[in-house]
Amino acid sequence: HGGVLDRIDSLVAAVSVFYLGSYLREIFL
User: Does the pTM of the predicted model rise above 0.70?
Assistant: First the structure.
């Protein structure tokens, strides 16, 4: 169903942002 795909996309986006933020923090700190 579309709702499930939207939820997965949101989860993937959230995880990507989380890891990207952690990666950048490692660089700048």
Answer: no
